[in-house]
Design goal:
disordered C terminus; mainly alpha; 9 helices; 0% strand
């Protein structure tokens, strides 16, 4: 609450501050006030339409909530186009593709993210989810074994960069 208040006060003196808008959107998202967060992120995109961090955050947030996922895919793809080396953006792309049940493309994007940040628990968990679901669709056992390995690495790996992201480890059964 105090962070939100301080950020709103800062916006009164500098209403087009991209950094302040981004932080306010993140605070609102962490409070699970997703509609408010989305409105702030969209306001930030008016200020700077090519802000890769804003595009990624808004896209991932909506893909994670499974709302407006086609648009989320477009947003994170634009973030990837702006910064193709970002592991976070590649992972977000993979998660949006996963939500659209495009599992092979999701796996490719998440593997690119792992190539840039191979010890990230969230990325490993997202790989596990894509492989697990591909196994459920195809019945190919190596996919399940690799999914379990990815989930195990996620458990042992680094803490998530974004505490708002939850691991999918409880989805094994």
């Amino acid at each position: 609450g105090e962070a939100e208040k301080a950020l709103r006060e800062a916006l009164e003196s500098e209403p087009k501050s991209l950094a302040t808008l981004f932080q306010l959107g993140a605070v609102l998202e962490r409070q699970k006030r997703h509609d408010d967060a989305e409105a702030v992120f969209r306001e930030a995109l008016v200020v700077q339409p090519d802000s890769a961090p804003v595009l990624n955050y808004l896209g991932y947030m909506n893909a994670d909530r499974n709302v407006r996922v086609e648009e989320a895919l477009t947003l994170v793809q634009k973030a990837v186009d702006l910064d193709p080396q970002s592991a976070a953006y590649q992972d977000s792309l993979g998660w949006a593709l996963y939500r659209l049940n495009r599992l092979e493309a999701a796996e490719e994007a998440v593997r690119r993210a792992l190539g840039r940040d191979g010890n990230n628990a969230v990325i490993l968990d997202n790989l596990g989810a894509a492989l697990r679901d591909r196994y459920l669709r195809t019945g190919v056992l190596p996919d399940l074994g690799e999914a379990i390995d990815a989930f195990r690495e996620a458990l042992a790996g680094s803490a998530p960069d974004d505490p708002g992201r939850s691991l999918h480890l409880n989805n094994l059964g």
